[in-house]
Design brief:
alpha/beta; Nonspecific Lipid-transfer Protein, Chain A; Rossmann fold; 2 domains; seven-stranded mixed β-sheet; four-stranded mixed β-sheet
């Protein structure tokens, strides 16, 4: 059945329950339901399922309705029920033309710092409620389906180092180093001279403290610095989950700058989320820009490769990590829900529900192929 023909109350492969404020409860599909939606009345249910994603998301984070059970299944049902009509098209146009989207052309240095700190400087303790023990905020690598998140993230760190062929004495740069997991892992396990940079004040303080705790002051350092202001040379560089903040129209400058920081014969590993060619900005994008990732933008893989090669890089290998990222987001959603009370105590309920929705939507999009993630290994000849 075409998704545009699905309506609330019609059969669906995903069964769900609806509870109304009046006390009435109904089941859509066969028992048992994957989730239960608690709403005021039928008109609110219809608006949530068939209206634009931005408005539905606002109602959710403001607790005007609730969902218990499988949140990702709920998002899939909403996607099947949603109308692709005139007003939805207007929201998609707004997402593409909003002043915040114009940042991809005209973002100041000050604004770049504000955007990064909006997302990453909420609270280190909040991020610890759903990330692994190392606070790795990118796709894990589940080589074994039975692995824990910690095991899968360690496997990912190991693979990044192996892909870069890290060796003792290498001058290694981690661009947008997060909470220092890769930086510290590379310095400890591979004896490199590791440098990290970040615009997040919280991440800078955390990573600096971590380096001191591990006694790595002689081999690792972190700077609260825009990568564009770096001038030292390195023979190995990684950028993991960072270039999503760069913007499609700044990709050329991004790759030229990284190229200038790399020694001849050096390796650069660029890993991040991209968007398939047939996917454009939509109401969900508008929500992410306003509530989660101001200034963020997903490029297409073809644009990434084209910009890298134009800068002079030779692309050696491209690897897809979409299924691993879907599993990673699933783990994050489960951990965030398990730590609901602690999370709300740290950041408040609206931010908690915003991150819960954003992570669940990320899981759903990775599973469906609406977003993708690739690791691109390249060399400077």
């Amino acid at each position: 059945m075409p998704v545009t023909d699905v309506r609330p109350g019609e059969p669906s492969e995903i069964a769900y329950a609806v509870e109304y404020r009046s006390g009435k409860r109904e089941i859509h599909g066969k028992e048992p339901p994957a989730f239960t939606m608690s709403v005021t009345d039928g008109s609110q249910l219809h608006r949530i399922l068939t209206g634009n994603a931005y408005s539905a998301a606002l109602e959710f984070i403001r607790k005007q309705f609730d969902i218990s059970g499988d949140l990702v299944a709920a998002l899939r049902v909403r996607q099947k029920c949603a109308h692709r009509a005139f007003f939805d098209s207007l929201w998609s146009l707004a997402a593409r033309c909003a002043p915040m989207r114009m940042e991809t052309w005209l973002q100041s240095r000050k604004r770049a710092v504000e955007n990064i700190r909006f997302h990453y400087d909420i609270s280190d303790r909040f991020y610890s409620t759903f990330l692994d023990s190392r606070l790795v905020y990118s796709s894990a690598l589940f080589e074994d389906a039975a692995w824990s998140l910690d095991q899968a993230q360690e496997a990912k760190l190991k693979k990044l180092c192996q892909d870069l062929d890290l060796r003792a004495g290498d001058r290694f740069l981690d661009v947008g180093c997060g909470w220092g997991a890769l930086l510290v892992y590379a310095a400890q396990r591979y004896k490199v001279r590791a440098t990290g940079c970040t615009l997040s004040h919280n991440q800078y303080l955390f990573t600096r403290s971590l380096i001191h705790q591990r006694g790595l002051q002689e081999s690792a350092s972190v700077q609260e610095l825009d990568y564009r202001d770096l001038s030292r040379r390195f023979n190995k560089i990684a950028s993991v989950g960072m270039f999503e903040h760069v913007g499609r129209h700044r990709l050329a400058k991004y790759f030229r700058k990284i190229y200038s920081l790399l020694d001849h014969g050096g390796l650069f590993l660029n890993s991040g989320i991209v968007r398939p060619e047939n996917v454009a900005d939509d109401p969900e994008t508008w929500f992410l820009l306003r509530r989660v990732f101001p200034g963020g933008e997903l490029a297409h893989l073809s644009e990434v490769v084209r910009a890298a090669e134009a800068a002079g890089f030779e692309v050696i290998r491209i690897e897809g990590l979409r299924k691993d990222y879907a599993r990673t987001c699933k783990e994050w959603v489960e951990r965030l829900r398990q730590n609901k009370d602690a999370s709300i105590g740290l950041v408040g309920e609206e931010i908690y529900r915003t991150w819960l929705l954003y992570l669940a939507a990320s899981e759903a999009n990775f599973e469906a192929g609406a977003t993708d993630v690739f690791s691109v290994l390249m060399a400077k000849a």
